[in-house]
Structures are given as C-alpha cells and as structure tokens.
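FIELD: query
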Amino acid sequence: MKTLKDWKRFAVVLTMVATQLTFTGCLRQSQDAQDDKIIKFASCHLKAYEDTTKVLAQEVEKLGYTLKYTFLADNTQLNEAVESGEYFANYHQHAPYMNEFNAAHKGNLAVAFEVFTDRAGIFSKKRKSLNDLPEDATITVANDPGNNFRAFVILADAGVIKLKEGVELIKVTQNDITENPKKLKFIEVDYAMLSKALEEADAGFLYATVAAEIGLEFGKDALAGERKELQAPDIIAVRKENVGSEKANILEKAYKTDAVKQALKDAFGGKDVLLPAW
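FIELD: result
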C-alpha cells in the first residue's frame, strides 16, 4: 500500500517527466521551424551556375531563409536529387531537358521559374562563315533529344540543308534531312563533349556559355543562331507539388534581383553571354 510520501514522490516524478516531454517537444518544434527555413539546392558544377548560386544564397538570406547548396557535375544526378526529395530545387537545365528526364525516368519535375536564356548557335574554329564549309565537312551536334534537333533547324534556317516538311521541329533528327548539297557529315556526341569535339570538326553546335569557355563570343563568332521561338530558357526545377510554394516563391524573388543579374554578367567578364529572363 502506497503511503502519502510515496504518492508525493510519484507526483514529483510525473512532473519531471512532463517537463522533460514539454522541453523535448519545444526543441523539436524549434528544430522543425529552423529546418522549414532551409532550402536545399543542387546546382551545376560550372562557373556561371556556381557564381550565381553563391549570390543567390546571399539574397535568400535577406528574405529570412538559408540556401543550403551543393554543386554536382552530372545532370541526371541533379534531377534525381530533386526527384527523390533530397533537395528542394535544382539549377542546370532547360525545360526540354527536364521533360526528357521525366519521360525516361517517370519523373515528377516541373518548372518553378525561368532564369536566363543561353543562346544556341553553330560555331567554328576553322571557318569564318557557313559558306566556307567545304564538301564533306564534319558538324558536331548534341546526341540528347532536348538539343539534337537544334543544329539541324539552325542549318535549315540558314539554307545549308533542307528538312522534311511536316515534321515537328523539336522531333527533327538527321534522318529528316532531305537535301544536303555540301554532303555535311554530322557527328553526334555527348553534350559535355561538344566543346572538345569542335577542335577536330569543321563546325559544331554550342550554347553561348559553352562557347565562351573556349574563347568564342556568340555575337561575334556564331556562324548562325537559333530562332528566338525555339530558344529554351534555363529554369529552376522543383517537384510538381512544390510549384508556387513559399520556398519556390522565395527562390524566385531572390533570383530575380539586380545582384544576380550582375553575377550573370560578372561570370563572363562583364559580357552579356546569358540573357536574364526578367
């Protein structure tokens, strides 16, 4: 039989347990609140993306959040990081590439907002114009569906080749070439190898950023550029359910600032290589 002293002792223990549970609960709530202010962000391991990500982190902090970022080199890994929920958003691709990933991997990624346009064109280190291309000239093109069609459409728009009528432009391949007077030879290579492949080719497809990395300027050195309606702006991608969320809105507000716009210029020595999407 419990005595009054035992009951008092028991009451003290209950009070201590309740206090501990309350304290633990408060700590958990505090930690949850802190975590809710962290945006995990996966960015491309290239200078322009790295530089703007660092400035983006500063702008996010001004809005009361923390951008916890990492840099990854593999495009598929960048998308898988967001698809799995390990990261909230990523920064490395345009919508056609994202859609290609979704189709191939049953992905659930969507556009949070557009960030900049990286213009595409045909470049050469050997020729001054498309007219200078000799017969049997080699042209390097990207092998992924999100970019493969672009070189053929650019060359068709420039009158160098002709394409089969009725084919949706984004689905064009070299099999759709109906006229090729110069007997151009197209070499499909991995996107990451396009700049190196250009060293041996007569000409090749590049984005302005990639061209800048090997000393070529879009406005001065592109033999032909992509028509505006086919240009694909780079994006910040999130899972579909996170489009329009508070964190997505914070990212957009922080990105679309003068500081990030300046960082886009500074990444290329003050040149307008990338065109801001705002």
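FIELD: remark
The first strand starts at residue 38 and ends at 44.
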